[in-house]
Every structure is written in structure tokens, then in C-alpha cells.
Amino acid sequence: MLSVIIPCQEDGFFLVPTLKSIFSNVFPVKDFEVLLIRSENECVSERVNGFPIEQYVVASKSQAQALNWGVEAAKGDIICTTKPGCIVSSNWLEAIAVSLRRNPDVDGVGGPVLPCWECGTKIQKLASQIFYEEQGFSNSATITMPGHYQTYLHSTNSAFRKDALKSLEFDVCFTYDYDFDLCWKMLQNNKRLMYNPEMKVQCVFPSSLRNLLRRYYVWGREKAILRKKYSSRSELKSYFYTPYNAVRSFLQPSLRGPTKKLLRLAQHAAYNLGNISGYGYTSEA
Fold it and tell me: What is the pTM (predicted TM-score) of this model?
């Protein structure tokens, strides 16, 4: 059985499209369960109650802790993760099951996070396209290597064998990058991860510019912390490659016009500030 865990500590109003897409999968409903782990303060639509899911309310606002809680409660031997605002493809669950069945030595599999043009405001749609372009997702199946971020497994679109997660929890110190932290830990513990382009998920980004930039700031900070935590080389110059990249992308022609350019520049600026903050971060651990 597959267990789909959805941590809902934010963006609860986007749950219905996510659940609709999951239950529209060609995979038999009897062969998977859906666990919604939501914060007690997060509001969700009453329409969520119309789906055959298990709902749990937890006090924590941490997505990582919600996932850890869900793994313990899950009945399946394969743990699938996604989030509110994600619209999974109709063959998502089937692609997960086939990937892990055909690759018994692989402990986790994930796929691309695609732009979503069906839902959201103009900013949300442009943000999802920018994210997809900058991630550089591969078009072919690839075994993940340490430091190869293009094939790391995003929590919006990933699945793991439950046995592989038993001793390696999601780190609650991270707001968003607990998924990349888990990838590092698994690779260090000789687990095998695979990127599968057939696992397709669309993602709707935050509706307000403020929340979007806050997310990029946290991403930048946590990426810097990850580099310090796992990389043998943590040079200062690596933290200033992003500003150069931001200016370069702003000067390049854009098919979507000045709005997309300005949004990309603002996101990069927020990410950069987070990077600088993360560079000065020290951990007692």
C-alpha cells in the first residue's frame, strides 16, 4: 500500500485541488491512503471532509514534524509526500509504484515540480514558471548524487520506502529544506535515490508578493545552512554567485515581459539576503 502524507501548516485553502488530483489518479483507491496532518490553527475548506482521507490535527506548525508524525501513523510501506497547492498528474501514484518495483535497490524517488497555469493569480503563475526554469529538472531518469540539487527529491513530489525513513527523520530545524536535508542524510547513509521525470506535479505558489519573497528568503538561508552542514568546502564566494546570476537573468530577454523580469529579480534579492543570513549561522550540533 502507498501512503500519501500531506502536511498542512500553510496554504490550507489550496487543499481541495490537491485532493481532487490525487483521487483522480488511475491507481486503485483501495491500494493507497491519504493522511492530512494539519496545524490546529490552519483553516481548511469543509469540502475536504468529502474526501476519504484520514485527518490529524497537531499543535506544531512545522511541516517536517507533521511529516514525521504522518510516517508513524501511515499503514503503507511506501510514503508519498506532496503539499497543498500541488496538483499531481493522473499517473503519479502509478509512476511511484512502478519506479520502486522496478528498482528494488532504490530507497526514494522524486520528480519535477512543473508550472501551474490553471490556478492562481498572475504572480503565482509567473512564480511557478520561474521556479521550474531555475531548477533545471532533467528529462531523463537519474540516480541522485551528493550535491546534485537538480535531482534532489522535493517534498512536493517524492516517495520513500518506509523502512528507509525509520532511522532518518525530517529535520524540524528546517522550515522548507527538510527535504534536501533528508536527501543528504540518506545519501550519506548509503541509501539510493532516483529522479524520475514521469512523476509530474504542478505547484501553485503563494498568492501575495510578501509571502512569496519570505519563502525565497528562507530558501536562501536554509540552502546556506545546508552547504555549511554537508559540504567540505563552504567558500564565501559561493554565496555571491546568486547575485551575479540574478543580474544576468534580468538582462536577458524574457518572453513574459518586464513583470516576470522584476519578479525574478525580487525573488533573487530575497534569496540572496537569506544566503547572507545563513552564511553567518552557527549550530551547536
Answer: 0.89
Please name which of 281, 242, 285, 282 lies closest in space to residue 265, comparing C-alpha atoms. 242
> Rounded CA gap, 195 and 83, in Å?
19
Query: Residue 198: how many CB atoms within 10 A of its CB?
Result: 16
The grid coordinates listed for 284 are: 551547536
- Give the number of other Cβ atoms within 10 Å of residue 162's Cβ: 15
* Cα–Cα distance, 176 to 219 (Å, whole number): 7
Q: In 245-273, which positions are buried (b, 16+ CB within 10 angstroms) versus exposed (e)?
A: ebeebeeeeeeeeeebbebbeebbbbbbe
Buried b (16+ CB within 10 A) or exposed e, 115-125: bbeeebeebbb
78-127 pLDDT tens trace = 999 999 989 999 999 999 999 999 999 999 999 999 998 777 788 889 99
| DSSP code at position 8 | E
Helices 15-22 and 92-102 meet at what angle, rounded to 10? 60
Alpha-carbon distance of 60 to 188, in angstroms, equals 28
Is 219 in contact with 271 (CB distance < 8 Å)? Answer: yes
Burial of 54 (0-12, 13-18, 19+ CB in 10 A): middle
